[in-house]
Amino acid sequence: MRKDEIELLEHIFEFPSIWGSASVDAEPEKWIDSWQVFKVTKCVANQDVYGFHFFGRNTKEHAGAVSSKIVSFDPVSMRGVTNSGRIYQLMGSPGHDGDADYVLAGWKRINHVETEIATQEFLKEYGIVKA
Question: Which conformational region is residue 127 in: left (phi greater than 0), alpha (psi within -120 to 50 degrees), or beta?
Fold first, then answer.
């Protein structure tokens, strides 16, 4: 086996079942339920990831999803636009999804970041819950 093939296999075994999203042109919106918000607290390389991000269960694919950094959010419609240009529609109240946790753990390893859950902080910042 060639060295590049071995490296690819090592990568696949290190990050099983984690794949990228469709392009924003192909999927301009994602609707997520069982959602939460996290923020990047430490990053090795890409400073653009600092800030709030959504994660939850993509209702179309019934799989975990993690967004790029949130750049705007409308607390009335519960819709946010991320750095990629994708619109995330939050469905229902914040919740928990095991697959979303799994995808977030892989996203953190791939992007070499540390995070903390910031759902309550995010909701307070946008006036959705009282301090």
Answer: left
Quick check: is 111 in a domain? yes
E strand map for the chain: 29-43, 52-58, 63-66, 70-74, 79-82, 87-90, 113-117
Looking at the 3D structure of the chain, how many domains does it have? Answer: 1
Q: Is residue 9 part of a domain?
A: no
Q: Is 17 helix (H, G, I), strand (E, B) or coil?
A: coil
Q: Which domain holds residue 40?
A: 28-125
Residue 131 has pLDDT above 60, yes or no: no
Half-sphere exposure of 36 (CA within 13 A, CB side): 18
Amino acid identity of 39?
K
Average pLDDT over residues 72-93: 97
- 11 pLDDT tier (thresholds 50, 70, 90): low
Q: Would 21 be classed as within a structural domain? A: no
